[in-house]
Structure formats: C-alpha cells, structure tokens
Amino acid sequence: MGVADPATYRPAPGTIPVEPGVYKFRDVHSRVIYVGKAKSLRSRLNSYFADITSLHPRTRQMVTTAASVEWTVVSTEVEALQLEYNWIKEFDPRFNVRYRDDKSYPVLAVSLNEEYPRVFVYRGPRKKGVRYFGPYAHAWAIRETLDLLLRVFPVRTCSAGVFKRHNQIGRPCLLGYIDKCSAPCVGRVNADEHRQIVEDFCDFLSGKTDRLVKELERKMHSASEELEFETAARLRDDVQALRRALEKQAVVLGTGTDADVVEFAIDELEVAVQIFHVRDGRVRGQRGWVVDKSGDAIDEVESGGELPVLVEQFLTQFYGEQSTLAAQAGEEQPGAVVPREVLVPALPRDAEQVQQWLAGIRGSGVQLRVPQRGDKKALAETVQRNAQESLQQHKLRRAGDLTARSAALQGIQDALDLDSAPLRIECVDISHVQGTDVVASLVVFEDGLARKSEYRHYAIKEAAGDGRSDDVASIAEVTRRRFGKLRRDLDAAEAADLAALESGSDPMESGLPGIDPKTGKPRRFAYPPNLYVVDGGAPQVNAAAEVLDELGITDVAVIGLAKRLEEVWVPNEPDPVIMPRTSESLYLLQRVRDEAHRFAITFHRSKRSRRMTASALDAVPGLGAARKTALVTHFGSVAKLKDATVEQITEVPGIGVATAKAVLDALHTE
After folding, report:
1. Handedness of CA 309, 312, 316, 318 (dihedral sign)
2. Which residues touch 451 (CB under 8 Å, ≥6 apart)?
3. Angle in degrees, CA 247, 248, 249, rounded to 5
4. Which of 203, 317, 404, 648 would bridge with 644, disulfide CB 3.0–4.6 Å?
5. Residues 499, 501, 506, CA angle at the centre, nearest 5°?
6. pLDDT value, residue 73
7. d(Cα 241, Cα 432) in Å, to the nearest integer?
C-alpha cells in the first residue's frame, strides 16, 4: 500500500471548528488508527497538516497512513476526556498508547458468588461476583500473607472438586485438621458462619485492620479474665499473626491515607509506568507497564510538555479501564478504584478537568498532587526507581535474546544496505558542560553484546580562545585518533609483508596484523568495526566520514543516530533513514548509543571532579600535582579531606603540619 499524502484529505480552510472536541484519523479501509482531543480542534488538526518533515517520525507515519479525518465538537473539556477514552476503548487505534491491564500480575480473589466463598491466587480477566485484592508484584508474597491470615480467618481455599470429595467422605482435608480452614465441607460451620469469616477476611485486606485487631484483643482479655487460658493463648497468637501480616505491608504514609502514586521512566521511544496503591497508609498493590510513546506526547517533547501529556493519557485510560472492569465484575462501588489522592510527577495541563473527571468516577472529590517533600516525596522516588528498573529490564530482555540480536543485526544490514551484518559496532559520544571539560567515549558491541573490556575514553583538546569546542570537531578528533592508529598498524603490517617478500621469507612469519606476538591474542582496537556510529545528525556523520576518507579507511560504514527523533543519518545524504520504531535493529542502535552516552558522562563527572579538586587546592603554596593526587587518593574525596584533622592529613607521605594546616585553610575558605 502506498504512502498517502495528507494534503489529499486535509479539510478545507476554515471548516475545522475552533471549539474543544475529539478527532479520529481513519485509514483507507475506514479503520480508526488514532484518536485525540483538543482544546481547539482547528489549532490541533492544522498542526498535523503543516510541514510533514517537521513531524516526529511516528506522527508522520500516522498522517501518511491515514486517508481521512473527522471530529466531534463537545461543550466541555471533561466531555472531551470521556469521549476520547470511550473511542480509544471502542476502536483500539494502532497509533494510540494503550495501558492495558496486565493479566500476568497475580491477585487474591474471593469468590463471593459461591455459597461457600473460596480464596485463591488468580491471574486473568475479572469475573462477575468475584472480589479482587492486589495486584501484587509476586505470587509468593500473596501466598505468604494468605498463610498467615488463614490462621485467623480460616476460609475455604480448596477447589470445587476437593470440596465435593471431602464432603462425600465426611473428613476435612489437612488444612481443616490444622485449623487453617473452618471445614464447611463437613459442616463444622454453616454457610452464614463461613461467609462472616470471609467478610472479616475481606475487611482486613481492604484496610479495616484496626477494628479486627482490637476485637481480637478484646476477646483475648475477656477469655483471660474468665480463666480460659487456652482460648486466650490462641487469640494472642492470632493477634500476633495479624500483626506479622501487617508488617509485610509496611506503613509508608500516615494511617488513613488512601493514595495512588504514579511515576514514569521515559526514553526516546518508550515509557515505563509504575503505580503503587496505598490504602490506609500501606502499599496494598503495585503494577506497571512498558509501552511505546505515540501521538500527542511525542509532539510535546520539544516544548517540555511531554510528561503532563503522558500523565493525562495514563490517568484517563487507567482509571477509566479499572472502573469499567469493577462495574463488569458487579462490585458495589466501582468508583472505589479511584482513591482520594493521586500523586503524579507532573500535573496534566488540564488538571482541573482531569480531577473533575476522576471525581465523577469516584463519586466524591479527588486531588491530583505533585509531592514536594516528606514521606510522599520519598515514596514517589521509590516508585520512580521501580519504573526506571522496569524500563532497563525491558530493554535488557530484548537485547539479551539471541534471536532478537540476530534479527537486529540483519535488519541493520538491510536498512543500511551493508555488504554483511555489522558484527562489530563502535559508537562515539561527546560529553561536556558548555564546551568545557570535553570528553568522549568509544564503546564496542560485538554480536549485539557490549564488550566492556574494549571501551575507551578520550580527553578532547579544547579550542583555543574562548575555551569552547563543538561536537563536530570533537567527533572528527576522536575518529582521527581511533582510526589513525589503525591506519598506522595496517601500514606497518603491509611494510613488514613487503620486506618479507623482498627477502624471500614467508610474510606470515612477520606476524598477523592485530595479533600480539607475545600473547597470541588480538590487540585492543586492532580491527576496524563493520559499523561506526556517532551521536548526532548530518554534520557529525559527515565529519567522521571525511576523516575516514583522509585516512583511506574504506571498509567501515558510518552512521549518525540523532537523539531527538531517532533518525539514522548516512554521509552526504540529504534525508535520514527511518527505521521502524518497533524494530529490533533500532533498539540495538539505541542501546549502543545510550551505553556510549552513559560511559562518557561517567568519565566527564570524574574529570570535572578532579579539576574542581585541583582548583580547590591551587591556593596552597608549594603543593604540586603529585601531592594533590596523593591527598585525594588517600581520603577518597575533597569532602572527606575537608573533614579530616591536621594529624590525619600528615599521615599522607610528603605532607607536613604546615602544609596540612594550609590545605584545611584553603578548603574551608573555598
């Protein structure tokens, strides 16, 4: 199917209304491929039909896949939120983000629709008449908590078959014998008594813990006063079991606090979301997603509005989906899925409308807040670390898969029209602060995996004059230094071969280029990469290609990977290569670039730290570079050196009392 020209279906000027509304893009088969909302339909839709080259590749792909656009005007932005959610749910457009409920997360289910309700660990879609608690990160965490609670709330946990069999033979199962089941199968309790146990169990899990613990303590004291010591001892153990179960759900916020904490980890292509559900101050469950970024969020990257858009997309989809699922399951209060407070990393642009919409689901007020300090801020940081780890693990799983790596290398070969798959990839990244302390990193991937033993750092010489240096010149310098050595090695090997031929000896006796004659192992950077990646666009990649041409290196492909749009630039081409954004090939190139960036930043920080250390000690008369290094090495950091005593400083070889006092004076003055 050919690529559509958006101009062919662009609405006539002036026909798009300026009111708020929701719009749909459809493809040639009339399938809805994208749904969005806007405060002003005219302003938003016109942006799609501007210069197509200025659009993000994902947005560009959407508008060229579409064949028509239509819209619905609404009277309020809250209506727009609801209609957008309904349409995304109805049409499942391929270019919209979907935070689908992850069926892999385990929950604790209670089958209230049975005569004798059963408690069990469950994964899957919700069913009517079943109450769910969680989700939890691990099934073992549920089972461990359940094992503790069965002592206090001996509810049925067996399947229908096991229940029927023990009913027929008239003997309970093992759990009945050890008092971890009230054994309704043999009539030890009737249906009403068993249901009361189940309701107490549900009350405990839903946060009504204090009432149950106090009730047990009251019964314990009453039994003790009546000299029923065995009963009192059993109740004491029950109270301890409940307290242990509560300890597994650590108090993270004040008692009585009901809140959801939402955090994001974002890269150029994907977003990871984590949400912690806090009820009565305790984390009752968590869940997470990793999804492709798409639509409006991508278009807001330049203006810094990406996060507010992602927050709004997530809140509307997640809580809309949860309330729908709760209603389908027949829960009495489907609005209870929305807590009183939702903590987010940034407020949506239409925060008041989103709050109003959430309050409509809950049936009472909802507050959206960005935590600023204290326990809520600390918990948000924990959730954010979980999101970051989730994104990293997602990337590693993709990169670690051999099949995916093979497909990625093959895809790079095809996309760049290389002679062979790039089994060795080298990537260079530049790091600096406003042109100072310029450093570069060179990382190596072989067969799609990092070869950290081959990594290399470069300190870049700053340009004379204002002390600034640009990335293009830095890329050229690193390329010249890296491949200049290769050129010299190749020339030396060629000269040795010629000399051997002229003397009549075997050229192989002079040794193989790239092999260390002492160890027989390959030298570092003795072989050229199949693919050389620079961080940047056309100027950077052209600078690297010019250096390779000067050096006569002809068998190395060069590309640039631009951060913002993830475009792949090749030398002397006016347009970039756009790889499919879900392809394993782009994932591999992105991971190579990210690793080079990480390695460069690490080196830059250490270099800057050493420079700042040196400048702090420059004021000490007679203290040379060797003794500065000895001081910092001995104490590990300037901060620790600053906190040291004169006696401790004089323990460093070559440092006397006078110098130690001068060092402390200089640091405290600094």
Report:
1. positive
2. 444, 445
3. 85
4. 648
5. 110
6. 92
7. 57
Report the alpha-carbon distance of residue 220 to residue 63 in Å, rounded. Answer: 70
Distance CA 449, CA 13 (A): 52
pLDDT digits (tens, 9 = 90+) for 330-348: 666 666 788 999 999 999 8
Task: Give which of 432, 466, 452 is closest to 535, Cα–Cα.
Answer: 432
Q: Is 531 helix (H, G, I), strand (E, B) or coil?
A: strand
| Rounded (to 5) percent helix, strand, coil in the chain | 50, 15, 35
pLDDT at 261 (0 to 100)? 93
Q: What is the mean pLDDT of residues 638-646?
A: 80
Going by the DSSP 8-state scheme, the letter that residue 130 receives in this structure is: E
285 strand-pairing partners: 277
Question: What is the helix (H) or strand (E) element at residue 409, kind and residue range?
Answer: helix 402-416
Mean pLDDT of the 88-98 span: 81
The CA-CA-CA angle for residues 658, 661, 663, to 5°, reads 110
How do residues 137-193 score in pLDDT, each as one tens digit? 555 556 766 777 787 788 999 888 888 889 889 988 888 888 889 999 999 999 999
Distance separating alpha carbons of residues 565 and 583, to the nearest angstrom: 15
Contact indicator for 312, 348 with CB cutoff of 8 Å = yes
615: Cβ–Cβ under 8 A, 6 or more apart, which residues? none
**Long-range contact pairs involving 64-67 (C-beta distance under 8 Å, separation at least 24):** 64/3, 64/4, 64/5, 64/6, 65/3, 65/4, 65/27, 65/33, 65/95, 66/4, 66/6, 66/9, 66/25, 66/26, 66/27, 66/33, 66/34, 67/4, 67/8, 67/9, 67/26, 67/27, 67/28
Q: Are 285 and 337 in contact (CB under 8 A)?
A: no
Q: What is the mean pLDDT of residues 90-107?
A: 71
Quick one: tokens of 264?
Answer: 């994001």
Rounded to an integer, what distance in angstroms lies between the CA atom of residue 480 and that of residue 489?
A: 14
pTM tops 0.85: no
CA quadruple 189, 193, 199, 201: dihedral, nearest 10: -40
